[in-house]
Amino acid sequence: MTHRTPLRKAVLSGAAAKNPQRYRDRNEPQGGPVLGRAPTYFNKPQRAAWAKFKVELPWLVEADRAMVEMASIVRSLIEDTPAAVSAAMIREYRQQLSALGATPTARSKVNDMPALVEEIDPWAKFEVGVK
Predict the structure, then answer these.
(1) Where are the alpha helices (DSSP H) in 101-130?
(2) For 61-73, how does the pLDDT look when each residue is reduced to its tens digit (9 = 90+)?
(3) What is the DSSP string of 91-123?
């Protein structure tokens, strides 16, 4: 079985620019609209975890809902019942975070996030010498 890098990842990582012939005829679905509200069956701690993910990971879209549901459930269990947390639960949570782009390594591959630094003024270069 061959490994196929998703087109979006290839573009963001620069692989598509390096080997454009590999990605020439790819047609992959977009993620869709924004993540939206938490599922109606969630309890209060699970909804709070969902809301945290929406703020912390603004690149998530509707196509990520299933993974965010699982991660929200695990996060709420970790936060609300720390005595019941097992090593297996922590491993699962870490894998979920990685899949969502929420770890430092995974986040470094998400290049289309809005810049968190101050916005660069595109007109500033024309103001040289203007008083």
Answers:
(1) 104-107
(2) 888 999 999 999 9
(3) HHHHHHHHHHT-SHHHHTT-TTSPP-SPPP-TT
- Distance from C-alpha of 52 to C-alpha of 60, rounded to nearest angstrom: 12
110 touches 12 (CB < 8 A): yes
Per-domain residue ranges of the chain: 33-110
Distances from the Cα of 130 to the Cαs of 92, 108, 119, 120, 124, in angstroms? 57, 39, 21, 18, 10
**φ, ψ dihedrals at 34, nearest 5°:** -60, 165
Q: Encode pLDDT of 6-49 as tens digits.
A: 676 677 778 888 888 887 777 665 667 888 899 999 999 999 99
What's the one-letter identity of residue 49? A
Tokens of 44: 């209060």
Using CA atoms, how far apart are residues 63 and 31, in angstroms rounded to an integer? 5
What's the residue count for the chain? 131
* Cα separation, 14 vs 18, whole angstroms: 6
Q: Is 95 helix (H, G, I), strand (E, B) or coil?
A: helix
Q: What is the DSSP letter of 118?
A: P
